[in-house]
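Async update (no meeting this week)

Hi team, since we skipped the sync, here's where things stand on the single-chain job. The sequence we agreed to prioritize is pasted below, unchanged from the tracker. I ran it this morning and attached the output directly underneath so nobody has to dig for it. Comments welcome in thread, and please keep replies under the output.
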Amino acid sequence: MENEEQKPKRKPKRKVYESDHYLYMSAELLKCIQQVPHLRPEGWNLEGPEPDDCELRYISREHAPLFYPWEEFDCRTIKLINLRKPACRLTFFRTHRYFLKKAEKITRQTKLDTIQEVIQKLQQDLDKLDTQTLFDVPTDQHRVVQDELNEWKQIAQHPDRYDIALSNYHKEYIYNTLNYKYLVEDPTDGYRMANETVHLLKNQYEKDRSKGRAQAVAQIRYNIVFIDLESIVQPDPYQNKVIHRYLEGFPIRTDMYLHHVYVRPSSEERMD
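Output:
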């Protein structure tokens, strides 16, 4: 699993649609997915276990044009991963993403403001617990929050004795991630390899934390991966695919014992 330290940033704005239009577009997209054949990853250049909390659908590149009408559609439950970049290699992994603002980067005023924010938050939590407590008998949770509040009040009395850091590291935001490689045309060598990394949509589950019980899926979210079938089943290591494609452009090949000599018409001849 990879770790990525990031600065906190706002998510890009989602597109807004009229409700009826969004439902219609989503339904038609799902219908298109269900109508085309789905592939099974057998003998593919694939690394890493497929995530078990994501719904993956593999579709051949030949069917990609059917999905072009939804290329700019911002669907919350269906993600067209690589519509115009069919994959010839897939690598799945998990990414722990977080931000970290270290103590030396935090000003004294920010430290003071943060301490007061924490105290206010804990006081609100305590007040809420007080309204839920019967017969004014403190619960274990009440005592934990009260102890934490008392600790922060002591910190507030001597703020210069303490350093403060900010991070969501222990929130454990774990993302299922896919890196896919694809071939792009190159005017010099014919083809070159490119790659991109994307986060996958996770299914949403019911909030049932009972031990020993599997959580029911509340909403399925689909990840659609388009596949270059010709390239993804090549037995060659993925880094040699570009060379493989390049040499395919030479129709004549002669074995010279320790190497081959390849011949093709010159670029001027090919233009003729």
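Quick observations from my side:
The chain has a mean pLDDT of 85.
The chain has two domains: 2-98+171-261, 100-167.
Reply here if anything looks off.
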